[in-house]
Inverse folding.
């Protein structure tokens, strides 16, 4: 094992280690971080697009356009009466001989077509596996004749950790996982069972469905549940099944019911 964030007396942190950490935080895809102008595109003319400042992550590899600056991108002239689609990508490139790596903006120019322009392919690549080129699509640029008619974003801006925390808190206010316990339930050997109970009332919420259930107690492995459901017509929940064992089962039942805040969802499980 090697330490990354610590002093060892010599340079030891590698780009590969940094990318591994980033993939653990951001996943293995490609994203734009919520900082600066978030690589916003500004159409200057039919031949120039400015990509504003921001930070991106390509498979763990981070790159930046410095704050309060932009990178200009040149779009080749369109053709009268023809349609074309170009892609603006952030391209990771590694020189096989020198091992020098870089990320730059690149335009992948499409082929003009009189009727329908084709969407271009790009280099997917796998940086961690050693591929020398990997593209992250940023914008689809559509040309009709000589004019750029649209510049469409193709990347995802990922939220910050406080934003994710806020969303989780909001979701927890919308749904509740309610555990219900029923004790001393008995099922004779080789017999069916069907239990039903009234659903508890949670002010401001309504029951949606049974999430999970579990048995604890004196029974063998032949106690089988065929149905665990909320019965909307009677406002009850029930457990149905069969004891395939040779003896009477005496169990405690734990059931988790999903409750949803009133007005949030119109779906009702029958």
């Amino acid at each position: 094992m090697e330490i990354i964030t610590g002093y060892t007396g010599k340079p030891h942190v590698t780009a590969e280690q940094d990318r591994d950490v980033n993939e653990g935080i951001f996943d293995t895809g490609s994203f734009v971080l919520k900082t600066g102008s978030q690589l916003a595109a500004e159409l200057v003319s039919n031949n120039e697009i400015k990509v504003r400042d921001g930070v991106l992550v390509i498979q763990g590899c981070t790159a930046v356009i410095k704050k309060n600056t932009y990178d200009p991108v040149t779009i080749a002239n369109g053709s009268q009466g023809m349609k074309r689609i170009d892609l603006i990508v952030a391209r990771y490139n590694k020189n096989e001989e020198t091992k020098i790596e870089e990320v730059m903006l690149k335009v992948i120019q499409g082929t003009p077509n009189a009727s329908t322009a084709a969407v271009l392919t790009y280099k997917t690549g796998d940086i961690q596996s050693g591929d020398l080129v990997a593209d992250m699509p940023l914008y689809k640029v559509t040309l009709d004749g000589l004019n750029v008619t649209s510049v469409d974003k193709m990347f995802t801006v990922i939220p910050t950790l406080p934003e994710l925390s806020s969303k989780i808190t909001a979701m927890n206010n919308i749904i509740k996982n309610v555990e219900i316990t029923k004790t001393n339930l008995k099922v004779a050997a080789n017999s069916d069972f069907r239990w039903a109970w009234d659903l508890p009332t949670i002010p401001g919420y309504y029951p949606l469905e049974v999430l999970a259930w579990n048995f604890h107690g004196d029974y063998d492995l032949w106690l089988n549940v065929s149905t665990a459901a909320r019965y909307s017509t009677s406002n009850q929940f029930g457990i149905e099944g069969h004891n395939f064992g040779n003896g009477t089962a005496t169990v405690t039942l734990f059931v988790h019911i999903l409750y949803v805040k009133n007005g949030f969802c119109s779906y009702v499980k029958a």
